[in-house]
């Protein structure tokens, strides 16, 4: 499960940070998650809650900030927001890596990040 592995790598690095700095209680972790990572936030929160139980991170809040996707096209040099494929069956618009200007395959320049932005803890 995608969300589970993301949650465990986050928790692992925060706990490592806590151990190194002798922090007993983590209060909040703020994440930057790219739109292209297709992370289900509820799933991620659920996994986070489960993994942090009985650790220094227990009951800490997980804040997620989304990084919008951006593409750059090697064919027509378009740069900007990607094209969205609005599928009636999908719950939310799906990002495609097709250039909105010329329709060729574009490259993502932003939206694949998954990083810890800030950690709040009790000193
Ligand atoms: Zn293009």
Order of helices and strands: HEHEEEEEEE
Ligand set: zinc ion
Low-confidence stretches: none
Largest sheet: 3 strands, mixed
Under the CATH scheme, the architecture of one domain is 2-Layer Sandwich
Shape: elongated
- Provide the gyration radius in Å: 18 Å
CATH class membership of one domain: Alpha Beta
Helix content: 25-40%
Instruction: Give me the side-by-side strand order of the main sheet.
Output: 2-1-8
Cα distance spanning the termini: 34 Å
Structural class: alpha+beta
Count of alpha and pi helical runs: 2
Your description of this structure?
There is one protein chain. With 123 residues, the protein is an alpha+beta fold. It has a domain at 2-68 and 111-122: hypothetical protein PF0899 fold. Helices cover 25% and strands 33% of the residues. It is built from two helices and eight strands. The chain has helices at 2-20, 41-52, and strands at 25-34, 61-67, 70-72, 79-80, 83-85, 94-96, 107-110, 114-122. Strands 2-1-8 form a three-stranded mixed sheet, with helices on one face. Strands 4-3-7 form a three-stranded antiparallel sheet, with no helix packed on it. A two-stranded antiparallel sheet has the order 5-6. Helix 1 packs across helix 2 (41-52). The model has no long low-confidence stretch (mean pLDDT 92). Zinc ion is lined by residues 73, 75-76, 78, 99, 101-102, 104.
């Amino acid at each position: 499960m995608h969300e589970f592995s993301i949650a465990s790598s986050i928790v692992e690095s925060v706990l490592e940070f806590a151990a190194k700095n002798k922090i007993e209680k983590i209060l909040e972790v703020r994440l930057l998650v790219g739109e292209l990572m297709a992370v289900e936030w509820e799933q991620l929160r659920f996994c986070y809650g489960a993994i942090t139980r009985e650790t220094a991170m227990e009951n800490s809040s997980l804040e997620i900030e989304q990084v919008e996707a951006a593409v750059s096209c090697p064919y027509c040099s378009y740069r900007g927001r990607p094209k969205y494929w609005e599928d009636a069956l999908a719950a939310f618009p799906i990002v495609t890596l097709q250039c909105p200007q010329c329709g060729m395959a574009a490259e993502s320049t932003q939206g694949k990040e998954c990083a810890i932005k800030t950690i709040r803890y009790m000193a």
